[in-house]
Every structure is written in structure tokens, then in C-alpha cells.
Specification:
Elements lengths: L5 E3 L3 E3 L16 E5 L3 E2 L5 E2 L5 E7 L2 E8 L12 H17 L3 E3 L2 H6 L1 H6 L6 E25 L11 H9 L1 E21 L4 E23 L2 E7 L4 H29 L1
Parallel strand pairs: 3-8, 3-9, 4-9, 5-9
Antiparallel strand pairs: 1-2, 1-11, 6-7, 9-10, 10-11, 11-12
């Protein structure tokens, strides 16, 4: 059931994470910011937590578990250092889209010619500020389970041959549920490169649980398969984390704006 999917930043809030948008505030100045590519500090492992699930066999008396087998999606992969670049790109987009008072500049241009960026700043703009960070968690776990039921024709013993007919009509039903849990976290700092001071530091975290369901029903010799799915667990967790980061950047730079007035 897609309604069972829960997105959360700190607590479950909704079935899908929406991008955070903080509109432009005319009482605050514009902030010139750039994002240095994040360092990959986590293993980035994707794995099945339990690695086990129940296998079910259909027999005349109903469905019975017959074996234990590795859960679907239990393999491990390592996305490597590309995770840091991916999160950097996502954060850049989130700030550009969601922070109305921010002016985002390209990191490579700033890195090679920071004076050009400073010279191009307009009157009243603050910065440039550099956001840098370390990815501390980026993983997704997968668990799979199978459930099923069937009719055994109980109570029909007094009606000759009725039991097998009823069983054929009602048939069998099995449900395979695959749960994906995505977790993303990074530690970030906002730095004023002209003074070398760390303006702010924060941790941004996001988790998301996605449930895919496949139902197989057999009746009168015909089989019908239906499936439902939800959003990417790791993608939604990353969106929750970048939402937190956008909020933290806004709070920190708004505070800097007040200090600049004093």
C-alpha cells in the first residue's frame, strides 16, 4: 500500500518529500554562495538488512512455509566517491531553487578566480560564502517477505466433491512486499573565505521508507498479478536532507546579515 510509505526529516510527515522553498525576503540582503564538492566519508553500502525471507509452497491444505531463502535485493554495491559529487549537485539545485535570497556561483570559476566573483558582486550583497561538507551516511537497506492464503474447503465434507470445486474457485493469493529504507546524512560548514571563519556548521539528515507490493491471485485456473510502488527511498532521503540544509543555510546567513548591520 503506497500510503504506508513514510518520509521523514526528524519524524514521519508524509508519503513523499516536497522540496523546501523559502521565498525572497526584501528585508534581507542577497547572499552570494558556492558549494565545494563534498568529500565522501561513508561507505555508501546498499544492502539487505536481514537477508532472509519466507518461501511459501501451495499445497492442497493451504500455504505452508517450506524454506528460508536470501531476500530479494540483498546484494551489496558501493557507489564510491561519486556520492559526494551527487549530493553536491543536489544541494546546489536545492539552494538555487529554494533559497530566494541566495545567488549561487559556480565552484570551479570561484576556485580559479575568486577575485572575479568578488568584483562582480552588487552593492548590498554579502559573501561570497563557501559551503563545504562530508557525507557521513548514504545507504539503502532492502527487506523482502512473502505472505499467502488459500481455501481448504473446510465445512464442506458433507457435500460430495464440493471441496475441490470451492478451492478452485477461491484459488490462492500471495503478496510479496519489498521494503526499502534510505538514509542520507552529511556534516556541512559555511565558511567566509576572506576571514577564514566558520560562520556556521550543521548536520543534515534524511530518511525515507518505501514499500513495493506485488500481489498474485489465482482463481479458476487464471492468474492475475498487480503491483504498487512508491518513490525512490534513497532519492527521497536525500531530498529530506537537502531541505534541512537549505533551512540551516538560511538561518545562518540571515544571522550574518543582522551582524553586518551592527
Amino acid at each position: 500500500d503506497p500510503a504506508e510509505a513514510q518520509a521523514q526529516q526528524e519524524v514521519p510527515v508524509q508519503a513523499e518529500v516536497k522540496p523546501l522553498v523559502i521565498p525572497y525576503d526584501p528585508s534581507l540582503p542577497k547572499w552570494v554562495v558556492t558549494v565545494e564538492p563534498f568529500v565522501q566519508g561513508s561507505s555508501g553500502i546498499t544492502a539487505g538488512n536481514s537477508g532472509r525471507g519466507s518461501q511459501v509452497m501451495i499445497v492442497p491444505g493451504g500455504l505452508v512455509p517450506t524454506a528460508i531463502y536470501p531476500a530479494v535485493g540483498g546484494s551489496r554495491t558501493d557507489p564510491g566517491s561519486q556520492v559526494g559529487f551527487g549530493i553536491t549537485a543536489q544541494l546546489l539545485s536545492a539552494i538555487q531553487r529554494g533559497l530566494g535570497n541566495a545567488e549561487v556561483v559556480d565552484w570551479e570559476i570561484y576556485k580559479h578566480d575568486p577575485e572575479k566573483i568578488i568584483a562582480g558582486m552588487k552593492t548590498g550583497e554579502l559573501g561570497p560564502y563557501v559551503i563545504r561538507g562530508v557525507v557521513t551516511q548514504h545507504n539503502q537497506s532492502t527487506d523482502a517477505s512473502v505472505e499467502g492464503e488459500s481455501s481448504n474447503g473446510a465445512g464442506l465434507g458433507l457435500i460430495p466433491y464440493a471441496g475441490p470445486i470451492i478451492r478452485l474457485g477461491k484459488g490462492t493469493k500471495s503478496v510479496q512486499r519489498t521494503t526499502y529504507r534510505g538514509m542520507v546524512a552529511f556534516d556541512a560548514q559555511i565558511v567566509d573565505p576572506r576571514s577564514g571563519r566558520i560562520v556556521s556548521s550543521f548536520t543534515a539528515e534524511g530518511t525515507f521508507t518505501s514499500i513495493d507490493t506485488m500481489t498474485t491471485k489465482t482463481s479458476w485456473g487464471k492468474t492475475k498479478v498487480t503491483s504498487t510502488g512508491c518513490s525512490s527511498a534513497i532519492g527521497q532521503a536525500l531530498l529530506a536532507a537537502t531541505n534541512k540544509a537549505v533551512s540551516e543555510v538560511h538561518i545562518a546567513l540571515a544571522k550574518q546579515s543582522q551582524l553586518a548591520k551592527n
